[in-house]
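Hi support team,

I submitted a single chain yesterday and got back a structure, but I'm not sure I'm reading the token output correctly. Could someone confirm the output below corresponds to the sequence I sent? I've pasted both exactly as they appear in my results page.

Thanks,
R.
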Amino acid sequence: MEKYFIGVDGGGTKTLCLLASEDGAILGRGEGGPVNPVFVPREEARSSLRQAVAQALKQAGATGRRISDVETIYIGAPAVDQQLSLEALAGLCRFERLVSNADDALNAFTGALVAPPGVVVLAGTGSFAMGMDTSGNQVVVGGWGTLLGDEGSGYEIGLNALKAVVRASEGRDEPTLLTRKLQQHLHFVAESDLRHIVYHTGLTRQQIAALAILVSEAASDGDGVAARILGSAGKELGLLAVAVLRKLALTGSPGAGSCGADTPYRVALTGGVRKAGRLLLDYFAATVAGAAPGSEIVEPRFEPAVGSLLLAFQESGIRPDQAILANIDRTSRSLNRSFG
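Hi R., thanks for writing in. Yes, this is the structure output for that exact sequence:
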């Protein structure tokens, strides 16, 4: 009987689920809303997770396979514990094992680099970095949330856009295209209306993070203020990577790369903020290269949801070989083109 695996990546804006057969063919893909119960009600987190998994099962069923039994489900989502996962999955399918990591660092790392050594910086609604050396030593920095961290994240970029509009309106900074773009997006006329929108109507964490795309558009149109916001974000994300590289070097293990050993570390930036444009990526790369010249900036191989899928295979005692990886790559691209 063929075995099936489910990998879930959850964050502050959306939840993504992938379902695959044991040869690596991705058969179903599902999406849900935000799943972090620190920032959304537990019921909403449970509903988002359930929706994503249900959609993936339904899409896989449309291929002619009735999938009621799954070998392993791996859920990489911050603060999502085993109990919440069990509640969300109740009645959807039977499964041999469930791993709910309450963390999205390892699946982001595994998706981007597949295997150590290396460093992965994830920048979505929030931000963090994880590194692992050849001995399995792990370091995670960032992930402190909106009040204490999230540097370089979509949330910080969006928040800085709001602040830039306020500063420009008072003459404390130069005029910016962000004013017009935010007026159109948030439906206000006078900048003073932002007080009501932000403090009384209220903008959610994900709504503020969604403003990052406007910053990218303004920077592409030549806006200096937007360009500085993206440049600063790229630098902050680079500093996350540098902090991990330095901490890994302290382990003294082979592969500490640019911080003193012979083997360079691969460094990848993944997550939605990566799509902000070349400027942010250039600042990220320059910051890493300036502090760790022996490191190698690489493209992430897969998205974090694929990382969860790979970890589901590993939890079942299967080490994905090149044939499985190639099949995941081929079918995930095809599914992403056809989805939704």
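A quick pointer for reading it: The beta strands are 4-10, 15-21, 26-32, 69-76, 94-100, 118-123, 127-132, 138-142, 266-270, 296-297. Let us know if anything else looks off.

Best,
Support desk
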